[in-house]
Amino acid sequence: MSLNIYGQNLDSRLLIGSALYPSPQVMKQAILASGSQVVTLSLKRQNPNEQSGQQIWHYLQEIVKQTNGHLLPNTAGCKTAKEAVTLAHMSREIFKTDWIKLEVIGDDYNLQPDPIELLHGAEQLIADGFKVLPYCTDDLVLCQRLYDLGCQVIMPWASPIGTGKGLMNPYNLETIRLRLPDATLILDAGIGKPSDACLAMEMGYDGVLLNSAVALADNPVLMAKAFGQALQAGEHGYVAGIMQQRQTAHPSTPTLDTPFWHQNS
Amino acid sequence: MNIHINGKAYALSHEIHISVSSALTLHFIEPQQSTFAVALNGDFVGKTDYDTTMVKNGDSLDVLQPIQGG
After folding, report:
1. Percent over 70 (pLDDT), chain A
2. Domains and CATH numbers, chain B
3. What is the CB neighbour count within 10 angstroms for residue B27?
């Protein structure tokens, strides 16, 4: 069973961020431990006299080579479709990929995506030949509109970026899965615990994108491994078919030939 | 003329305009040693257009480089 992103089959269903780790070395170890084959990164202004970005860039290139993986540049920090489109073009030139995690923020407090700008940006980027992976809220109609535009991959949030609050609205997320059965759905942002990722997979999601949950753990490398295992457990659970909940108790042990203490009842 | 590169002001007394290639030498000591992409006044400028795209008075250049991201 593999994750399909715009025709690319990947062994791991985990997409992982490259930010917030204690050091570049820990970042590399954690990403490798996660088994992920998709690593997100970004573009920013940097002091030309410091080569910190260049160092990270070398590490990420090594990781991608080692995992036979892919880079997924994002448009973090953009607040309009125009900004995101410009940044996507800059990313494509540097990273030599037409994949773009489209991120257009509409509110500074909870970093909530702007649905209107997101749609405008997605439409323009698809016209420009990009394969768009939009980061969006868990709004069914928005996800449907993005899918109708041509986004084969949709990435609704679990909760606001970096909060670790897990799946705020499981009903919304389940409904999106139900209504968009052919879309590749990746739960993005707000994941805190491996069980959050497992739950998304049990719902039938195709993958999970996370960063803070691993990078901010006491032991990022071990947490990365835990997330890899959690995703696999959830995926197997979904594929195996989860039993229906029942309103009343049913004994697991056969009731036929119940032992002596019921003989006189 | 006055231009901005990544928000930093540069006053160039003699020029009316300069190419993006020339402007980049104000920012980097050795541009060819770095990985970056450029936007002029918010519009992407591809590498093949650095020599022919002109930066004029009041223009703003963004020079972005890879960094960690989520």
Report:
1. 98
2. 2-64 (3.10.20.30)
3. 17
Average pLDDT, whole number, for chain A? 95
Residue entry with tokens 């290639």: B21
Q: Out of A53, A90, A161, whose CB is closest to B67? A: A53
Q: Which of B28, B44, B70 sits opposite A90 (nearest CB)?
A: B44
Q: How far apart are CA A262 and CA A257, in angstroms?
A: 10
Cβ atoms A207, A159 nearer than 8 A: no
Residue in A14, A61, A91, A93 to test binding to B, most B beta-carbons within 10 Å: A93
**pTM for this predicted structure:** 0.93
Q: What are phi and psi of A202, to 5 degrees?
A: -65, -25
Ramachandran angles phi, psi of A67, nearest 5°: -95, 0
For domain A22-45+54-240, which CATH number applies: 3.20.20.70, 1.10.760.10, 3.30.1300.10, 3.20.20.30? 3.20.20.70
Question: Nearest-CA neighbor of A132 among A121, A144, A145?
Answer: A121
Residues of chain A contacting B40 with CB distance shorter than 8 Å: none
Distance CA B55, CA A60 (A): 33
Backbone angles phi, psi at A217, to 5 degrees: -70, 155
pLDDT digits (tens, 9 = 90+) for B32-64: 888 999 999 999 999 999 999 999 999 999 999
Which residue ranges make up each domain of chain A?
22-45+54-240
- Cα separation of A20 and B69, whole Å? 8
Q: How far apart are CA A126 and CA A70, in angstroms?
A: 19
